[in-house]
Amino acid sequence: MSALFRLTSRAVAMQRSLVARPAVAVRAINTSQKKDETVAAPTSVTTEDFANPSPKNWQSYGFDYKEQAEDRKATKSTFFVTVTLCLVWGTFYWAYLPDTQFRDWAQREGFLELRRREQAGLDLVSPDYVDPASITLPSDDDLGDQEIII
What pTM did the predictor assign? Predict the structure, then answer.
């Protein structure tokens, strides 16, 4: 909806800028030497012309520059592999990959441990998570006038 609003506001702004400009004379330049150019229709079109079209106006997709059929086949197979196999099935595979980092398992175990501690009446996180005897703190003389922020 916002894109439609932006597009409309840009169109209105463009119309206002065109109206605000002074009129500019537009001059058409014709570079043709012929005064009366006409388009000539083919004389006769038969069913053989439709069955065997001439590849005179054939544009290659870049896979094969000599054979039109090989070029079309390579184009279709490339787009099939790219879009169908890579994008569609690749996205499906990526979305349903198993949890290799065990994030779901760790979260589930955390919730189970919290529930166990709540039911047992314990603190959710033990204040003695690390044994206080294993920690060596500096003495007051070593700290001196150092400000301690807790």
Answer: 0.36
